[in-house]
Amino acid sequence: MITPQVAARLWTPAALWYRLNSEGARPLRFAMVGGSAGLLQLLLLHELVRWGLWSLPANAIAIVISAEVNCALSFAFTWRGSRAWTGGIRRVAITWGRFHAAISVGMGINLAAFAVVRLAIPVTLAGAVGILAAAIWNYLANSVFTFHPALIEPVVPAEPAA
């Protein structure tokens, strides 16, 4: 039986932060980061169209900018336990390249879905459809291709001085 004292400790900020950073919470972290990047994409799309840019190039620009934000947040938060951003600039560069290779397909899915539905629904809603269409691909591709532990070479410690 959980007493009120134990229940209170389960919901402290430190306990919630610990659970949020667990391996099992990675899909939630992915959704939080992806949702933030998706909102940024929609805001940029809305503003670029409002400023007079055609919707398809506006969405392409918004996708690229939000992808860079997504990449930074993915390194720092979603996949933080993967060792992808530790071990030097070489490992970060390789992982950055893999991330962009993986999401380039997602960008294509996003733009294709957007291009199809933007003729029938408002532009911002069409942007959201594109984001959702690409989200499943992006999660699977990044968990298998970009941040999978077997693909990230371990950091080899330096030999101790004799």
Structural class: mainly alpha
Total count of domains: 1
Indicate the multimeric state. Answer: single chain
What is the mean predicted local confidence, pLDDT? 81
Q: How is the biggest beta sheet arranged?
A: none
Which term fits the overall shape?
globular
Q: Treating each run of at least 4 consecutive H or I residues as one helix, how many helices? A: 6
- Contiguous low-pLDDT stretches (5 residues minimum) are none
The helix content, as a percent range, equals over 70%
Cα-to-Cα separation, first versus last residue = 57 Å
How many DSSP E strands? 0
CA-atom Rg in angstroms:
19 Å
Proportion in β-strands: under 5%
State the order of secondary-structure elements, H for helix, E for strand: HHHHHH
